[in-house]
Give the backbone structure.
Amino acid sequence: MKKLIPLLLYMLAVSTEAGVGESAVITLIFPFGARSCGMGETGTALADDESALYYNPAGLGVQNSRWQGGSAGHSFERLLPLLGIPDLWHLSLYGYYQPPNPNIGGFGIFANFINMGENWISDALGRTIGIAQSWEGVVALGWGSNFRELGDTTHNFGITAKYYYSALAPGYGPHGEGTASGLCFDLGYLWLTPLGLRIGATLINMGRDVYYVDPDILDPLPLTVNLALGYKKQFITNGIRLLDIAGELRFDKELVVSHSNRKPDPFWKAMFTEWGDSSLSYELQEINIHAGLEIGIMNTAFFRSGLLFDYIGERYEYTQGFGINIFDHLRCDLSYIVAPEGFMGDFLKHFNKEKTGSTGVRDRQLRFSLTVTGLARWGEHNRKWWMVPQKAL
């Protein structure tokens, strides 16, 4: 099915953390993993599953039985299902590994891919001048560690290097351009406090501006800062993991400064200048809010819910999720978005009578993840995965 590129990119932009027309390469801010997405797209403070490399690479420094011996999996979703476009989908592949020596930390890799199908290319007069097969991909490699050798495992740090390739209109332009590629980096920090509290912070997508056709017309990458507070606790009775509780509240803001008469501010400058280019009220409106909760029963069944609040992008969503863990190795997760057109509209009118609620573009969007964890750590304890291993008691 063929679509107009401007319309498609608009619809995708309002379904991510990016603002419309603010930045390029939206796949850099497209989260994956049904567990985190079922919790309102949280994970910067928890950072304890296979979406950790996206949300906070510092989580790789925390010892995790999921990654000891290696883990691998994939996540898939059809985007904007109400539009009925079969070739619009999102696929992610990922793998993690923590070596036997905990002083080394942990490593992760993922590939994030969005297929946009065939799109009409139009000129300034609206005339169709070609058809392009549009897609974007990101490959990332990350590492996380802490100061275990010095006796401190509460402060964790991580870094991710990402290569991106954006083919919005391949072959378009005087020299067959229409694509963009490059490198960018993420930095992450995770503090594990007493009583199960966790504090995470990241600065992601630090890299050079990109262009698709004209090198004098640059688009910035979606440089984003995240700050999150999380909680994680197990309740154990007679060696049985009766209950697991995890929750997170995350705030994110895109740090992009574009100008009509000159090039956008480079990332190292925009991370400071973005904070003062608007009124305080508007700066606060640009902060997206994510909240999520997970309850696990006997380390087998997991029930999740979350909220996502994007005031500028008109993205207001309630998310639901369910997961199942078998043998402490095979994990299947689902998440579902509830956001019909006008969702939360009545609530928003108390603050702004012009607000009408959710755009509805992502209502009923379903994610599925399948992951195999602890690949090289099979043992007798896996037959009773609802029990805590003796060495952990």
About this structure: DSSP finds six helices and 15 strands in the chain. The domain at 2-392 is CATH 2.40.160.40 (Porin).
